[in-house]
Amino acid sequence: MVPTCEPDDKLLAALESVLRQAPGPEAMQISVVDDASHSVDVQRLVRSIDRSGRIEFTANAQRLGLSGNWNRAIDLARGELVHLLHQDDAVHAGFYARIDRGFHAEPHIGMAFCRSRIIDDDGRLIKRTSQQRWLAGVIAHWLPRIAERQRVQTPAAVVARGTYETLGGYRSELCHAVDWEMWVRIAAHYEVWYEPRALATYRRHVANETTRLFATGAVWPDMARAIRLNALSLPDSIRTATLAASIRWHAASAIRTAERQLAAGDNAAAAATLRAIPDLLEAAEGHATDGVPHHRIALLRARLRGGGPRRWAA
Length: 314
Known about the structure:
Elements: E1 2-4, H1 10-19, E2 31-34, H2 42-47, E3 56-59, H3 65-76, E4 81-83, E5 90-91, H4 95-105, E6 111-119, E7 125-128, E8 137-138, H5 142-148, E9 157-160, H6 161-167, H7 178-187, E10 192-203, H8 209-216, H9 219-233, H10 236-263, H11 267-282, H12 294-306
């Protein structure tokens, strides 16, 4: 299931990556679900590489937004396993076979995912996601690890339809961490399978929604909301420690982001990031968050007040 909104030609590469390894229509539904695009004829774009009609096309009558369109795609899915593929991402040879093997080996799992390659606008490799285990299989103690921070790129994940039916869809109150919160919810109720081969690619580029949310500072309030929601999925035995670890990691990430924004001269973005840090810390709900480098936050705020980095004379 490929949710789209105002896609460009990268959609064709995403679809081709599926078609190259897809079984027949009796085994796999392939569907593009467009969220009321108005500047692109998405159906025509799809048909330019699929004149046979192998790929289904649905257009929403009105825009549903990120989570709304993802949930619409899930509602339209007929398969037992559901893969949401971003319009500018891709999967590599063997993705579906390896993931399918996980569901056959452990039919009770709620989802399966693989390692990902993260690339830039030009297709250059930025990094690979961290390896969760050396061999394919169910991940031990996965809930506290995924609840600490995001470790799964959406194009790398396949979720059992029954999992969505039991737990519900993606939350509309989230704009960035919508997938992360789902992975935590799933991990709280099901075991999760991992494939260590990097068989999916996530594209990080200047035009995507994640980049916009970081630039405006909107990503951090969304992370705070997600942390509070994630806490509801955690058992008492690990809630305090996991919540504290998550807040420490995200506060440090926000600080690093503000430092990069200041170094690039984007003081407005840095100020928005720093303003969001107290909300992140408040998500601890009174629990200790030792290890948060408050002195670095104070130094960054001082740099903003001073209009830039300190200048030294010798």
